[in-house]
Amino acid sequence: MLRTTLLCSAMALGFTAYADRGMAKDYFLASGRWDNVVLVIDLDKALDPANDGTPKAVVNRLRVTPDIEVDGKTVISSGQPISIAIAPDNKRAYVVNHSGRSTPAAAAAFQHGHAGTVTVIDLVKALDPASNDTLAAVAGYIETEGFGPTGFAIAADGKHAVLAHAEREGDEDGGRHLSIVDLASNRVIRRVEQAYGKPGFPCPPDPVPHRAPDPKFGCFPDTNGVTISPLGGGTIFGANGGTDDITVMSLQKAIAGEAGAELARIPVQAGGFGISVSPDGRLVAHASRESAQTDIPGNTVSIIDVEKALSDPAKAEVARVLVGTDDKATPTRPFVAAFLPDGKRILSTHFRANNIDIIDVAKAIAGGPATIRRVELKTPGGEPSRPRGIAITPDGKYAAITGAPKGKPNSSIVWIVDLASYEVKGRVTGIGNESYMIGVFQAP
């Protein structure tokens, strides 16, 4: 079990802009996690019925972790690439490697608590056939200065990013800071400390929990996904997997290194993974994945009003929507909640329920039934779909969903969903092993 989130910001989930839609093609960049690659998928090829259930829409497999020496042999380091963020100019992608440059044996023995890296990908080179199965598209690496990195969100001006760390060295628990990354120099310039939780036991616990579930989780926020609203001069929202709440943080104070950058905490049903901001910056959607104390999955998506989060945090959660099921007692383990570009709908993935929901935002805030459509995702071989990450094309026509159980190399799948008919229009196989997050970019 990965105690991460996603990754996830509006940009990490794939909402990007392009100057000339008429000349642009959509490509998806999917994390391949245990195969230590990211996959470039051509949307047009994925929509071709002749390619359904095949890897034919994959145009490149990009290596993102370097070779290392182990016992005198050269091997590919096990980075566990999990989260992807696309720069606003569509020129670079940032791939968060949960275990950095760890040896394959160390990552396989315990997937948490490793020093992380972020790989910077040149998106022009990502489309070059010469980059296939090589490091040729890698433009550099960012040392995260933390352990178990997860979410990565890029500020609107493209100059800074926020990076979450869900863990401490050697342990799945213990993450207690957000990093500010300068994207010109590709280095961490601030480590912003977060408050402890208030779990009702000695905090920090001794010892710190090594792995989840553990009843001593709840002291450290263990932030997974992050997103940024432009309101308030820039406001960071972090999905805290350890404390079952959301961090609200001033971006300006975090960049400046000022005290009091973390402004508030907003309680939610369960520890989150995927979190995103609406196109107008006024709302945040949070997927309540599971409790790290009990391992009980959640089954709701929370909608947060950004202005209330800044002025009256106790009233900021304006809706809590049951997702993936109509039975409140049924756990569905929501993974990601992503706004569509129209801002009127949210798409959520449900790992246990093997389906996705499309939510009407206005109806959710009004307190009424809000699920527009529930779509079951099916694999070509009949295995559970286990949906995780979401990327949505800028025109709002299609969503790409990652999933399939952890297994052998290239065992993951990407589903392409038509957001007008809510029908699956293509399934791309061969997407690494246990694919997590996915982004979308455009190129001529």
Automatic annotation (TrEMBL):
SUPFAM superfamilies hit by this protein: C-terminal (heme d1) domain of cytochrome cd1-nitrite reductase (SSF51004)
Classification via PANTHER family: DIHYDRO-HEME D1 DEHYDROGENASE, PROTEIN NIRF
Organism: Bosea psychrotolerans
Keywords, comma-separated and alphabetical: Signal
Signal peptide: 1-19
Protein known as: DNA-binding beta-propeller fold protein YncE
InterPro entries assigned: Haem_d1_sf (IPR011048), Host-pathogen_enzymatic-act (IPR051200), WD40/YVTN_repeat-like_dom_sf (IPR015943)
